[in-house]
């Protein structure tokens, strides 16, 4: 009760902040453009550094810093150095909007952040009003695409692509009766609903149940009961790893013997720890390329490990590519002007990234390169099928 | 059907354990201690730290070791509850009710984010897990560990009820609930009794925290928030301030969630549970077993 009131105050504060930032930008935007041509080009990055997804932030931030340092080592872009400015989005809409406003006031020219779709979605208008292009490395809900915003580019596979990959694997496994479980967040529900559509369209496997759980709980026995009642032979969980681990464990405790697959938000070694090694063994995952499953990335992994003392993690490669792509676009545009950078991004053709040569679709999503299937082997995710 | 009932009772016994602390404190001080759910979280982390200090345990020794950890944790969280009351609530005892409520929310945030600073934002996994193989009882899958946890919960609740209804200490609590000023005039040390009430309530929440950690495995610094709200709901359903009523409320909420999910689907579970809260608040604010306001414990 008390908390919801506090949340209301915060959202009001965030709304006021958004208004003032929006107004201020209209007046000040032009001025800073003329004055700031000598200093470093600032790239803004919103990633979770606290909250439930805090583990991901450092992987993305470090990789982006690695790219910035490499580019600066080669003389920077347009004769200017790059500078990375990081803000915390806590995987939370209100914190993300506050962080986006902070980055806008600090004068960033391109945004290269965005991990949680629910937190990234409300920042789109903040960057949009300030005419700042966004290259989103990880967040991939279809809702980010469906608004058809000119300044938004996604370099991770989207919900549609993930659902297609899931469908391909479900069919390949010969499953008949598929339970789809999501946590009601925009990202998770999107994948589940899209997979359901694919299941309903084609002849093969059928949807047994579309079940939603409440995140942050410990006991999912009531949901598990609903799932078990439909007798599925394949369960696809599209939410994050914290609940994912518990659901895998509780499914196995309830006597479920069939296959389990999780979405990319659940690809973390913690999921095997939470589920317990025995329950997690053999769990599949739909996932974009990770450092472990990349082919030909050995030197990059070695560079990263040398610099930060630990190997790269999920979305390190996408964050690294986002910075490189931002630098490339600014170079081709010959300016940091938002509209010119956006045109340069749209014109990119064959830029080499970990996911393959880059060319954006009219929707500003990847035209090639997407998801693959991983499997848990002794507590770690390993490549099962590249789906090529 | 029997599976639904069993699931509901199992979850409900956690709600009931946490709800008792809410209910006792409300009965005596008319304070909604919103930090109570975070004491549950503190219990889970204390148990985690103690288990880490104990080191490796063979599977056969799991239950005895956990019982030991349970006792240590109850002492730690009980004392934390006493400190919480001393620092955050006692200085404001005669202040308007709203100040106390705001302090309680503040204490809740302080505990949550204090724990994040101390233990990190990443979820932790208990080194000792109560898994166990299931047996069929009347068509429901039940593990021995679940039964053990329910027995512990029932024993703790029965002990508390005895303490409140049969001992001098309990009589002092009930007296303060009736009228703190007259109790003080009769020679009851009101501050000491309130401290002990906080100790008992927080110890029970700590016990629930350890049990949840050992059974579900995953703990994180925000785990107390939702269960705190649900415990509050249980207390309102059963009759806040009334101990048997609160226990009944916890079990009932567990059952409501279990059946609500079954009838309406997973996404309606919390709508259903909190809808019942609103219904009770408007139709029967004293709860199922709530008595006349003056007789609350």
UniProtKB/TrEMBL annotation, chain B:
> Which Pfam families does the protein's record reference?
BPD_transp_2
What keywords are assigned to this protein?
Answer: Amino-acid transport, Cell inner membrane, Cell membrane, Membrane, Transmembrane, Transmembrane helix, Transport
> Superkingdom, according to UniProt?
Bacteria
Q: Where in the cell is it found?
A: Cell membrane
Q: Which PANTHER family match?
A: BRANCHED-CHAIN AMINO ACID TRANSPORT SYSTEM PERMEASE PROTEIN LIVH, HIGH-AFFINITY BRANCHED-CHAIN AMINO ACID TRANSPORT SYSTEM PERMEASE PROTEIN LIVH
> Sorted alphabetically, which InterPro entries does this protein's record hold?
ABC_transp_permease (IPR001851), BCAA_transport_permease (IPR052157)
Membrane topology qualifier: Multi-pass membrane protein
Q: Which family does it belong to?
A: Belongs to the binding-protein-dependent transport system permease family. LivHM subfamily.
Q: What is this protein called?
A: Branched-chain amino acid ABC transporter permease
What the entry lists under CDD domains is as follows: TM_PBP1_LivH_like
Which sequence ranges are marked TM in the entry? 6-27, 39-57, 63-84, 96-115, 147-164, 193-215
Main location class: membrane
- Would the keyword Cell membrane turn up in this protein's UniProt record? yes
Q: Does the keyword Disulfide bond apply?
A: no
């Amino acid at each position: 009760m008390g908390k919801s009131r506090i949340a209301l105050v915060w959202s009001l504060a965030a709304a006021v902040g958004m208004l003032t930032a929006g107004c201020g930008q209209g007046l000040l935007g032009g001025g800073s453009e003329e004055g700031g041509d000598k200093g470093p080009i600032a790239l803004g990055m919103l990633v979770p550094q606290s909250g439930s997804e805090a583990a991901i932030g450092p992987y993305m931030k470090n990789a982006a810093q690695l790219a910035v340092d490499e580019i600066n080592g080669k003389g920077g872009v347009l004769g200017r150095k790059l500078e990375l400015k990081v803000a915390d989005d806590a995987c939370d809409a209100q914190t993300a909007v506050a962080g986006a406003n902070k980055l806008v006031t600090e004068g960033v020219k391109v945004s290269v952040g965005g991990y949680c779709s629910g937190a990234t979605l409300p920042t789109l208008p903040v960057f949009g009003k300030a005419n700042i292009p966004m290259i989103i490395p990880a967040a991939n809900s279809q809702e980010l695409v469906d608004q058809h915003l000119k300044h938004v580019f996604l370099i991770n596979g989207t919900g549609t692509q993930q659902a297609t990959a899931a469908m391909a694997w479900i069919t390949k496994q010969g499953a008949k009766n598929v339970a789809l479980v999501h946590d009601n967040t925009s990202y998770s529900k999107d994948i589940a609903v899209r997979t359901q559509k694919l299941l309903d369209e084609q002849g093969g496997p059928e949807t047994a149940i579309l079940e939603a759980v409440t995140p942050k709980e410990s006991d999912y026995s009531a949901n598990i009961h609903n799932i078990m009642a439909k007798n599925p032979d394949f369960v696809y969980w599209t939410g994050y790893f914290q609940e994912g681990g518990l659901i895998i464990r509780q499914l196995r405790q309830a006597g479920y013997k069939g296959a389990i697959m999780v979405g990319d938000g659940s690809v973390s070694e913690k999921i095997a720890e939470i589920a317990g090694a025995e329950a997690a063994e053999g769990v599949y995952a739909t996932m974009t390329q990770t450092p472990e499953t990349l082919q030909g990335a050995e030197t990059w992994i070695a560079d990263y490990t040398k610099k930060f003392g630990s190997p790269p993690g999920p979305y390190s490669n996408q964050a690294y590519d986002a910075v490189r792509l931002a630098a490339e676009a600014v170079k081709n545009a010959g300016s940091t002007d938002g509209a010119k950078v956006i045109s340069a991004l749209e014109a990119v053709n064959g830029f080499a990234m970990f996911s393959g040569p880059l060319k954006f679709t009219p929707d500003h999503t990847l035209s090639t390169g997407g998801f693959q299937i991983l499997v848990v082997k002794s507590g770690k995710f390993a490549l099962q099928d590249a789906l090529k | 059907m029997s599976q639904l009932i069993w699931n509901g009772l199992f979850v409900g016994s956690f709600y009931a354990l946490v709800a008792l602390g809410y209910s006792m404190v409300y009965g005596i001080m008319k304070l909604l201690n919103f930090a109570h759910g975070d004491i549950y979280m503190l219990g889970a982390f204390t148990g985690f730290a103690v288990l880490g200090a104990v080191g490796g345990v063979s599977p056969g020794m799991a239950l005895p070791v956990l019982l030991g950890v349970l006792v240590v944790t109850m002492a730690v969280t009980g004392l934390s509850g006493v400190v919480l009351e001393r620092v955050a609530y006692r200085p404001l005892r005669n202040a308007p009710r709203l100040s106390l409520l705001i302090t309680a929310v503040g204490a809740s945030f302080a505990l949550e984010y204090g724990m994040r600073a101390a233990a990190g934002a990443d979820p932790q996994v208990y080194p000792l897990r109560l898994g166990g193989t299931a047996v069929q009882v009347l068509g429901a899958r039940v593990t021995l560990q679940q039964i053990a946890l329910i027995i512990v919960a029932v024993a703790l609740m029965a002990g508390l009820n005895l303490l409140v209804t049969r001992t001098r200490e309990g009589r002092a609590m009930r007296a303060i609930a009736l009228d703190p000023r007259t109790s003080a005039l009769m020679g009851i040390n009101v501050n000491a009794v309130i401290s002990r009430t906080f100790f008992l309530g927080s110890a029970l929440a700590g016990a629930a925290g350890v049990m949840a950690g050992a059974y579900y495995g995953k703990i994180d610094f925000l785990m107390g928030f939702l269960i705190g709200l649900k415990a509050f709901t249980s207390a309102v359903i059963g009759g806040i301030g009334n101990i048997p009523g609160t226990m009944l409320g916890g079990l009932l909420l567990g059952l409501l969630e279990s059946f609500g999910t079954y009838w309406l689907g997973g996404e309606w579970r919390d709508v259903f549970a909190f809808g019942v809260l609103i219904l009770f608040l408007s139709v029967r604010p004293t709860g199922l077993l709530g008595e006349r306001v003056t007789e609350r414990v």
